[in-house]
Amino acid sequence: MILAEKKIVVHQQNLVLTNQRALFWQKADTLVLSDLHLGKTAHFRKNGIALPSEIIENDLKRLSDLIIHFQSKRMIVVGDFVHAGKNSEFRLFAEWKSQFPDLKIILVKGNHDRIVNEKLVEIGVTEVCEIYQEENFIFSHELVNSEEKFSISGHIHPGIRLKTPVGGLVKFPSYIVTESQLILPAFSSFTGLNTRNHPENSSYYFFTEEEIYMF
Predict the structure, then answer these.
(1) First to last CA, the chain
(2) What secondary structure does DSSP assign to 132-161, as a single string?
(3) Does 212 or 86 have the greater pLDDT score?
(4) 91 phi/psi in degrees, rounded to 5
(5) Under 8 Å between Cβ of 10 and 150
(6) What confidence tens digit (pLDDT) does each residue in 131-154 have?
(7) For strand 169-177 and strand 30-33, is the pairing parallel, antiparallel, or unpaired?
(8) Burial 110-135 (b: 16+ CB within 10 A, else e)
């Protein structure tokens, strides 16, 4: 894994954006991500669409590398931790979590997180909530407008579309940042990119496998 980092300051707090689809909140020793979509590839396989199990395994390996690199004590997932009910990938996540027994996981429920909280706790989630607030931040799956707090959300799988020198178009996953909110890219590598209907006056931090760029 090649890790690129870009620090931004929000409400006097250092947030480290990475090209590995998650940010690190320095003061809180917390990794923040969205849209892991645990169980998505297994759900597709169950319905007759052949997808390799390596997709989620690689995502969890990337998550391990980030936790180890930042020495994270906690992880906040702002929704769509689960994709479509309990399946074989739940066991895989429980095995993964056993490597980090002291890691606290706070899940802010998203539209796909329809499973009962007890099943989430069984595989290592510490706390489940609809919205989570701490310091000057409000964590939610979809945007929650607040005059006092800065919103960190996910849900839309943001991306940016750019023209190439020869007139083609390429898409890149991106963080979207405005004065009042930050939208995280999907952590899952098995997601599409939404390049439309973004907030006005946005700054984009898009990334490749090797670097982060601002647009």
Answers:
(1) 24
(2) EEETTEEE-SS----SSSEEEE-SS-BEEE
(3) 212
(4) -60, -40
(5) yes
(6) 999 999 999 999 888 889 999 999
(7) unpaired
(8) bebbebeeeebeebbbeebeeebeee
Residue with tokens 């989430």: 120
Q: How would you classify the pairing of strands 137-139 and 132-134? A: antiparallel
Residue 95 structure tokens: 């095995």
Residue 166 contacts by C-beta under 8 Å, 6 or more apart in sequence?
A: none
Q: Chain-centre distance of CA 42, in angstroms?
A: 19
- CA distances (Å), origin 8, targets 47, 88, 185: 42, 38, 16
Return the structure tokens found at 72: 């994270």
Helix, strand, coil percentages, rounded to 5, for the chain:
20, 35, 50
Whole-model pTM above 0.90? yes
Residue 75's Cα: distance from chain center in Å?
10
User: Given the structure tokens 């996981």, which residue do they identify?
Assistant: 105
In this structure, what token pair is assigned to residue 201? 């006056």
State yes or no: pLDDT of 48 exceeds 60.
no
Residue with tokens 């750019």: 162
Residue 142 identity:
E
CA distance linking residue 184 with residue 153, whole number of Å: 6
Residue among 26, 12, 103 nearest 70 (CA): 26
